[in-house]
Specification:
Elements (H helix, E strand, L loop, with lengths): L30 H11 L7 H28 L7 H7 L4 H30 L14 H12 L15 H14 L4 H11 L9 H9 L13 H29 L24 H5 L6 H12 L13 H6 L6
Helix pairs in contact: 1-2, 1-7, 1-9, 2-3, 2-9, 4-5, 9-11
């Protein structure tokens, strides 16, 4: 099993920035796209290339770990191809993240239907609002059928009792608060940053290389369906979002002041959703550093804290394989 990046500096491979000597991203890397994602999730306007390169290494290791576990699921069901059902099976223990993925599929199906309708209308001359002919069964319906087949209690497919997605709400409120101080040009830049993706038309082939390239430069024969690539791209996007969330929490904790017992509960600049911040604090916040990202991953991968933590079996190995997107 591929483990995620460790917190210590100087390890080979993980901490080597994928940046040229001129300070620009090398061809085939996602440093530029990840910088846009980081800005959209609450980082400064110009995130550090070193931080984006470090996040790219984490995303690659995380996605290869997801593929490894999904391949085990595909083998158990006797398939030679990793399908969307294998990804959903990994997400079955986290209903909120699973329903985020289902919403993503629903939006993709809707976009596909709209494009098909517009194409038919351009050919026929009239706008057809009904479902396009030959569209087949939607991926959302196929995934829902699979969830029903493994849902013994009805919780996976029951959207009425779904817990509130507080993490998503915090991200949306943080983005809204950050956009209040932007002019028209900066706002368009911020919107484009929030639209960055791993599986756009320009970066789809590059994302396949990111998944298939191992640490020694060799290529592995991975049989993934097209829908699986889309789901992995979304999970990689969510991984970047969670890393930024955790790094912002580390920064908030670093702003605590000795002798003030309640200072740790005062939200940090660029992260708050409930505390009134000055526009200058948001506008001129420092970009996240690699040290903050490493500390965030160290905390996330550390052993569980609680009365039963000392009795946890294989705590160290469990920490090394924790996935951010599952």
């Amino acid at each position: 099993m591929t483990s995620i990046i460790h917190s210590s500096e100087g390890e080979s491979g993980c901490d080597q920035p994928i940046i040229s000597k001129a300070g620009l991203p090398v061809a085939g890397s996602f440093v530029t796209e990840i910088q846009s994602m980081m800005h959209g999730f609450g980082d400064a306007r110009s995130p550090l290339p070193e931080s984006a390169s470090l996040i790219e290494s984490i995303v690659q290791q995380q996605q290869r770990a997801v593929i490894s576990q999904a391949a085990d699921m595909a083998t158990m069901r006797g398939s030679k191809c990793i399908g969307p059902e294998d990804i959903l099976f990994l997400l079955r223990k986290d209903r909120i993240k699973m329903h985020r993925l289902m919403k993503y599929l629903a939006v993709k199906d809707m976009k596909k239907n709209i494009n098909s309708v517009l194409l038919e209308s351009s050919l026929d001359g009239d706008l057809m609002l009904e479902t396009p002919r030959g569209s087949g069964k939607k991926q959302t319906n196929l995934c829902m059928d699979f969830l029903r087949s493994i849902d013994q209690t009805g919780e996976l497919t029951d959207t009425c009792t779904l817990p509130v997605d507080m993490v998503k709400h915090e991200r949306n409120v943080r983005a809204e608060r950050s956009s209040r101080v932007l002019d028209e040009t900066r706002y368009l830049e911020f919107v484009n940053a929030r639209r960055a993706s791993f599986v756009s038309l320009k970066s789809a082939s590059k994302f396949r290389e990111l998944l298939q390239t191992s640490s020694d430069g060799n290529f592995e024969a991975l049989k993934l369906s097209g829908v699986t690539y889309d789901l992995l791209g979304y999970m990689a996007y969510e991984t970047v979002a969670q890393i930024v969330d955790l790094a912002l929490l580390v920064r908030r904790d670093s702003l605590t002041r000795p002798g003030m017992p309640f200072s740790r509960y005062i939200p940090g600049a660029g992260y708050s959703t409930s505390h009134t911040l000055d526009s200058q604090q948001i506008e001129f916040a420092d970009p996240l550093t690699p040290a903050e990202i490493r500390e965030a991953l160290r905390r996330y991968c550390s052993c569980y804290i609680g009365p039963g933590a000392v009795f946890t079996c294989s705590a160290a190995s469990h920490a090394r394989t924790r996935l951010l997107s599952c």
